Amino acid sequence: MKRYFLLCLLFSSATVAIGQNSAITRIAFGSCSKDEEQQLWREVVDQKAQLWIWLGDNIYGDSQDTSVLRAKYKRQKSNPDYQLLLKTMPVIGTWDDHDYGVNDGGKFNPKKKIIKETLLEFLDVPSTALVRKHEGVYSSYSYGTGDKKVKVILLDTRYFRDTLLASKVEGKRYDVNEKGDILGEKQWQWLEDELTESDAAVHIIGSSIQLVAEEQGFEKWANFPAARDRFFYLLKKTQPKNAFVISGDRHIAEISKTDVTGLGYQLYDFTSSGLTHTWSKDFGESNRYRVGVNIIQKNFGMILIDWSKITPSITFEVWGKGGKAFLRHTPFE
User: What Cα–Cα distance (Å) separates residue 144 from each residue in 3, 36, 107, 201, 294?
Assistant: First the structure.
C-alpha cells in the first residue's frame, strides 16, 4: 500500500529539519488562532519545541473566497514571532472549520478542493507531497528510527464528514447522527494502513475535534457514534504502541481519557485551544472523562517524550502567556 509519510526533509529551507535519525523529545501543538491578535509563538520557541503541529482554525478565514483566506494566511505567516518559529522547527498541520471556509462545515463545501490549496501553501507543503495527490488533507509523518520512532497521523475531519443534526435542546447545538461518518472510506482505509504497517514506538493522532468528550453540546466525534466506535475498533484491531489523540477547536485546554475494550491501555485525548482566545469564563461544562481541570486561558500543548527508559515515558503539559504552566500529566503510568 502507498505510504503517506511526508518526512520533514521535504519542507522548504525556511524550516529547520529534524534529523531523520534523531529522537524527537519535545512536540508543541495548538489551534484557534486569530491572525490579528497577540500570539504565543515566543513561548513555543522558549519551550525548545522540535516540531509544531497545527490542529485547525489556523486562521479565522470564515470565507470561501480564497483571496480572503490567502490574505489572512499571509498576515499570520508574516508575524515576526511566527517567522522565528519557522526558523526553529518544522511545521505540519490539518484544518478545522474556520480555515475550511464554512463554520462547522462538512463534505458539502463546494470550494473545498481549492481551499485545500490555501492550507497547503501556508504549510509550505511541496508540490510533490502525497497529500496533494488525494482528496482531503490527511497525512502522516515519521520522526526518529528504530525503537525511538514517533509517528504523527493528522486526520481530516471536514472534507468527508456527513451532516450535523441541529438540536432544539437549549445549550446544545447538535444531536446525534447515528449512522453518519466523519472520515470517509478512503481515509478510513488509509488510517488502517498507517496503523497496521507502523513500527513506531509512539503514535500521535491529530483530530481537529474532540474524540473522547461526550457531554459538551458542540462538535465532537460523539455526534457520530458509529464513526467513533469504528475508530475505537480500529485501534483494537491494529494495536498501535502508545497511541493517543490530540485535538483542538474548543477554546479550552483539557485532558480526557477512556477505556477502549481490547486496546490494552487507556486512550487519551489531549485538547489544546485556543492560541489567541478562549471562553470568557468557566461555564462549568461537564466531562466525565476529564483528567484534572479545564484551562480557560490562552494556551498551547506540549508533548514530552523521555526515551531513557525501556518504554518511552510521555508527559502532557499545557502552557500559556509568559511561560506560565497550567497543567502537567503523565499518561500510561
Answer: 17, 36, 35, 10, 32
| Overall average pLDDT of the 34-53 stretch | 95
DSSP, collapsed to helix, strand or coil, labels residue 59 as: coil
Query: Is residue 1 in some structural domain?
Result: no
Q: Is residue 263 part of a domain?
A: yes
- In the chain, % of residues over pLDDT 90: 90
Separation in Å, CA 216 to CA 66, 140, 171, 196, 219: 32, 29, 9, 32, 8
Structural domain total, the chain: 1
Distance CA 232, CA 221 (A): 11
Report yes or no on 2 lying in a domain: no
- Between the alpha carbon of residue 237 and those of residues 21, 45, 115, the distances in Å are 29, 38, 34
Convert the pLDDT of each residue in 209-255 to its tens digit.
999 999 999 999 999 999 999 999 999 999 999 999 999 999 999 99
CATH number for the domain spanning 69: value is 3.60.21.70
